[in-house]
Amino acid sequence: MPKLIIDDREIEVATGTKVIEAAAQLGISIPRFCYHPALGSVGACRVCAVKVLEGPAKGIQMSCMLEAVDGMQVSTADREAVEFRRYVIEWLMMNHPHDCPVCDEGGHCLLQDMTVSGGHGLRRFPGKKRTYPDQDLGPLVQHEMNRCIHCYRCARFYQQFCGYRDLGVLGIGNRTYFGRTAGGRLESPFSGNLSDICPTGVFTDKPSRFIGRRWDYQRTPTVCIHCSLGCHAVTSVRYRQVARQEARMSAAVNGWFLCDRGRYGFFYASRADRPRQAAIKGETAGMEEALAHARSRLEALAPAAVAVIGSPRSSTEVLALTERAARLRGWRGPAFFADVGAALKVKAAVSRLEAGLAVSLGEIDQADFILIVGADPINEAPMLALALRQAAQKGAGVWVVDPRPVSLPFEFAHIPTAPKALGAVLGRLLRKSIEPAGLDGPAARFHASLPGDPASGPELPARAAELLAASRRPIIVCGTGIVAAEWVELAADAALLLRAAQKKAGLFYVLAEANAFAAGLLTQLDSTTDRVLKAAAEGDIQALVLVENDPFATFPDRRLLEQALARIELLIVLDYLDTPASRRAHVFLPTQTLYESGGIFINQEGRVQYSAAAFAGGTPVRETGGRDHPPRVYGSGLPGAAPQPAGQLVARLAGEEIPIDIRAQREYFSEQASRLAGLPDTERLPPDGLRLALRNISAERFKSMLPPVPAAESDDIEIILTERTFGTEELSTYSACLETLEDETFAGVSRQDAEALGIRDGDRIAIRTENGAVELAARVCDNMAAGAMMIPRLRRLPWQTLGKSIRRRDIRKA
Amino acid sequence: MRVDLIDKEPSGPIQAVWEGARAIAAGFALTLKHLFRKPITEEYPEFKRPLPSRTRARIVLTRDPDGGERCVACYLCSAVCPVSCISMQSAEREDGRRYAAWFRINFARCIYCGLCEEACPTSSIQLTPMFETCERDILKLVYEKEDLLVNHGGKDPDYNFYKHAGVVTAIGGKGEHAGEDQPVNVRSNMP
Ligand code: SF4
Ligand code: SF4
Ligand code: SF4
Ligand code: SF4
Ligand code: FES
């Protein structure tokens, strides 16, 4: 461990630390443009110059390229170094446009800061300024190339860190250009990070263009709720409008970045059509009036005739209070999942995440072998794909066992496997790669019960087993979308078996929605949405209370939903979205978004994280002023601030008066929700959240059901409903800027099936169902399992009418 | 000095009366003299004294020589204002020009410090010598953009920010602004 002296202060740092990082540990911030902790150093900008007084090479050195060695003595304030940095800034500013007042980076611009702090004020160079043409890069990133200082951060981030190739560096010398070979939408779903990472205003955030300056924003640390990973973000609010979201550094979760779904998924909160008023039968009503009306109508019904449906997009507070309300009143539910299968999977994941086994997103890059079973990272949890890429870059082998044509931004191997056979493939792979000798009791018995390669049929690639056998730190990534609950358990046992074989194995589940983990903790298997709707369709239930749930977007059986809604006499909807369900509600109660109420979310590894309230709510000034100046009336109340936290409303629906004071509410909450008691006060949650210490589950180890050999092939084609990065996650579909990024509607079919059905890529096909025909384009995929059809849950596609499988003869060319 | 005064101290009551009478007479004499002089007081509002153009009072938003609104809604004046009496919302015109969708100054709060004018990079916001802004209704002191805009360039008649900035607007494309080279040809292979 080298010890060095920087500005007369001594510090000991880890071997390999760069001087710029060592200085940072002392709290000395050396100017930098090209250096970034996530991207490392390239020495391109020359602004981090320091003077080495004692060391291997004395004189001016670039601190980002210079490794700290023992006995080194460095000065950052030496006159020569200061002068050098001043000249560098002056050179960088030589071609810089006179743009600050109209540049969206102004106010949080690194170049501005360095120029001002370096003391450069007047341009002395009399020559002309270089200019560049700009490109239209799609709806998320604005391009203004004149402002570039050629630090290469964007190209390194885009290509090296993320693995996309459509943006990079072009040209040479004075013409070096950062952009695409031709303008057009950026292909990477991580492109929004360019706005964060570019130290100047070349790449700026397009949707929040001109809304405000950094100093005017109310900035709050929040947690992204657009997938189950729970990445950390900073939310900016201005004039009661949620304006922008940026990544918040978290070593345990997302690192420095955020995916575009998370970054731009917030627009639902400030939409002009967001319902902010309670309504009775579509007529606007006061909140108290609507609440009293709903309560009296509910009280007139037998408790068993009332059912509650919640959703895993709600905060833990809302889930717990919903559960409590239902329990107190004897209502049915709450149902948090569409069917028992979905609930079971999440419950299995929740119960099998042992403290020693679960790995965080931040730990993924330390793996040397990653096996992904039934998960499609880039579409289900985009930041996972980025973490996987970092592992792959460090040499980890990544193998995907999945029926879908999974694509990832790095080299990986794919074993297209029918959904039914996922477990069997995992079992066979384990059996093949782990030597039974040396395993103890239960692990040995579990190993013996695993299936071997069948006599016939395709063999598993030997390379996968070899790599797994040789790995030291393997990680099993298991999805919960298309896999069966048994396989979720099997994944946990697989990780345990690898542990028993002396590997530092880890387990990583991907869940379906942001707070699925908490919903899994609180759900009861006998109340799921399909059962509730069936009971309603049969007339056993007269009133439905939907708490932040739009079954039109989430429930897979539209027919049943319509039957149920036609039969019930009272539909109460609590939501902050303008959904088909809220439009049909007999009583509608507006609720607050996470940005207004704050709340706890538990991510897929059981990490409890608090997303703070960013502002007090209310209609954005943009709306109240009709885009002109704000109304010239002054009062004490906020316009459009009727919405209340859903938890509070549902408790009041159940006839309880719950404390309005936040602290009292939290006490009340932890008292009531016994299954979540023990959660620390949100103020005491560490910045990276807290992983739930789950109960001892040794009894469940190695009990997973053995994967049965897949049943004899039925001739039907199984429908696999899948997520897409854009267009399927409910909340982000309310973001107008993401609309054009959504996929076309399509049906993915394997080449084998396509040939059998006589379909070619791009053909329009018609699928006949009980509910009429659905027409869409076929996408023939080479790396897809036969016997399955992939359908994205896009809004424009009536996927809710397709059912679970279709007969081959019902698929025709249109 | 002090020694002097002590020396001249009145020495008796007669002396004191004499001194007092003399002082009163001198005072009246001066008053009488001014009574017959031409007054130098100027009556306001009958007479309005021309103020130096840099006097700091009522604020305006000026226009560039081409008649365009100068303000680019950069938020610098609102940031620097010590009493936070400026608020605005920036927006974009069809041609890419950034402007203020609305702009409001609360003159009930303004202390006429002139910092906004100093901060303004486009010479848009300027203080004028117009100081008569009293109102009985305080809301009338809240000025909107329409109330603030004037159709001249104020103290800086020639400046046009968009002729100097690098962004593309109707005023100029890439390479057409002051001191700019033609856009580089990225595809060229020449050294
Ligand atoms: S990039 Fe920074 S320095 Fe350049 S115009 Fe924008 S704010 Fe000003
Ligand atoms: S575009 Fe931004 S990040 Fe890329 S090289 Fe230029 S200044 Fe650096
Ligand atoms: S003169 Fe001073 S107080 Fe008045 S608007 Fe300008 S900065 Fe604010
Ligand atoms: S500083 Fe000038 S250009 Fe910027 S917002 Fe104020 S008046 Fe407009
Ligand atoms: S930060 Fe060291 S050269 Fe750019």
Strand content of chain A: 15-25%
The total strand number of chain A stands at 35
Shape of chain A: globular
What integer value in Å does the Rg of chain B equal? Answer: 30 Å
Helix percent of chain B reads 10-25%
Q: Structural class, judged by helices and strands of chain B?
A: alpha+beta
Distance between the termini of chain A: 70 Å
Ions, cofactors, ligands: which are bound?
Answer: iron/sulfur cluster, FE2/S2 (inorganic) cluster
Task: Give the neighbour order of strands across the main sheet of chain A.
Answer: 15-14-25-24-23-16-17
Relative strand content of chain B: 15-25%
Overview of this protein structure:
Helix content of chain A is 28%, strand content 20%. With 814 residues, chain A is an alpha/beta fold. Among the domains of chain A are: 3-92, Ubiquitin-like (UB roll); 278-340 and 517-602 and 645-681, 3-Layer(aba) Sandwich (Rossmann fold); 358-504, Dimethylsulfoxide Reductase, domain 2 (3-Layer(aba) Sandwich), CATH 3.40.228; 717-813, Barwin-like endoglucanases. In chain A, the strands form eight sheets. A seven-stranded mixed β-sheet of chain A has the order 15-14-25-24-23-16-17, with helices on both faces. In chain A, strand 11 (218-223) and strand 12 (232-238) form a beta hairpin. Chain A is globular. The mean pLDDT of chain A is 91. Chain B is of the alpha+beta class and 191 residues long. Chain B has a domain at 59-163: Alpha-Beta Plaits (2-Layer Sandwich). Classes of the chains: A alpha/beta (814), B alpha+beta (191). Chains A and B meet through strand 6 of A and helix 3, strand 2, strand 3 and strand 6 of B. One iron/sulfur cluster (SF4) is lined by residues 148-154, 178, 198-200, 202-203 of chain A.
